[in-house]
Design brief:
With 483 residues, the protein is an alpha/beta fold. It is 37% helix and 20% strand. The protein has helices at residues 20-32, 47-51, 89-92, 110-125, 146-152, 203-210, 219-224, 228-231, 235-240, 277-287, 310-322, 335-347, 360-369, 385-391, 402-407, 413-417, 431-445, 448-460, 466-482, and strands spanning 3-8, 37-44, 59-66, 69-78, 81-87, 136-140, 162-166, 174-175, 196-197, 200-202, 213-216, 245-247, 297-304, 326-333, 352-356, 372-375, 395-399, 424-426. The structure holds adenosine-5'-diphosphate.
Length: 483
Amino acid sequence: MTIRVLSVASEAVPLVKTGGLADVAGALPAAVAPHGVAMTTLVPGYPAVLAALPKKAKAVHVWPSLLGEPARLMAGDLGGHPLLVLDAPGLFVRDGGIYGDAAGKDWADNWLRFAALGRAAADVASGAVKKLGFDALHAHDWQAGMAPAYLRYSPAGATVPSVMTIHNMAFQGHFGVDRFPGLGLPPEAWSIDGVEYHGGVGFLKAGLASASAITTVSPTYAREIRTAEFGMGLEGLIRSRGGDVLGIVNGIDPAQWNPEHDPALPARFGLRTLAKRAVNKRVLEAEFGLEPGDGPIFIVISRLTWQKGMDVLFEAIDHLVGVGGRLALLGSGDMAMEAKLHAAAARHPGRIGVRIGYDEALSHRMQGGGDAILVPSRFEPCGLTQLYGLAYGCVPVVSRTGGLADTVVDANIAAIAVGAATGVQFNVVTYAALAEAIDRTMGLYRQPEVWRAIVRAGMKSDFSWGRSGKAYADLYRRLTESA
Ligand code: ADP
């Protein structure tokens, strides 16, 4: 029997993306389809999303007042799978980013915008739209966190089971107590096992407390968030949910990330045509103003934040250049960090190239031409750039945390001996550990046979959605059968 799941997220590829959440929300419908799950995705109607709707798109439902805002539900298409768009112009149509203004300041009404998304999702999942029935609801991150709570506190109680997925525990959607009346929840929702969180309202907290099951995006991160260091205040709740918390590692979408068919690459390549990577490396050198050479090019594709260890990377730049490395970095985020990076590039002309901004096609060219991708994250729920690196023969050099620990096999002697090594791991995110990892990478690169074996093992590893798609489907099935 087909299980019908409503997946609700604040971003989804190819419509709108600011990070890995969008990649996952966009890939999930195809990942679960082979396992008997028909997934419909609900996203907010930002301008870019509305513009992608077919001209004849029809409203399938209308809310005269969704938490005070007129809203309607439009039907569309997400890569061949059903899409629902919450068209509420007062909430989602504005200039700037999807979470904040052009200067990066969060929208003051984010609580209302994403409460409305949650309310709409709960309504739709429990059958508000006559022709659209669902067996389960799947909410992603704090922006969708209120959906399981609205389900739970609806007058009829939760009519379908729900899954709450944590893509990043660092973002929790925490708002003041004064927002509670505006949420339209019954008074009993204001409780320690409801939406209350440290005297305010916690959207992710509400989802975690209300969902039938919780998942996060790697087994190691599922363990880490039980501790104060990674749980960020929610570790007690996570521990109390015990066996309901599951780690399912993200896959990569082969339609977007396959070096043999990637239209963004100057030269496409596969395991048998690895030599063609050299063409991409030359293009990359030119694009980043790097002096041509045989030594390795390290790449970084990242939000420029503390989480991603960019401050430590910055400290290690001189060392990287000193031992003969070159660096091509694409990132955006912290303005002070951007200025420092430009200064480093000016200090090492031809050795460091920096591009500030968000550029999807460039990120593909970097994976296809770079030799090693540095991911020195302090915490990393799953991480996608190291997976893209593996698939593209760009060896990941990663900190041993979260999904990075689960997806990269460190090139220690034993792993090299059996041909299992796919990258380099280091333990703590410090200058000394990163510098040592860079040294080890340089040493491996100087042994062409060993390096080739690492590249090939990475390209052969299976990070398709196969196994993880089945894990989600099994979870939905278990929940719907026991509901
Ligand atoms: P997070 O979601 O925490 O930012 P992930 O590694 O899970 O980290 O996903 C990041 C996604 O965003 C990847 O698809 C990566 O290629 C992409 N990305 C990050 N920064 C940039 C950038 N400046 N330009 C293009 N793509 C980027």
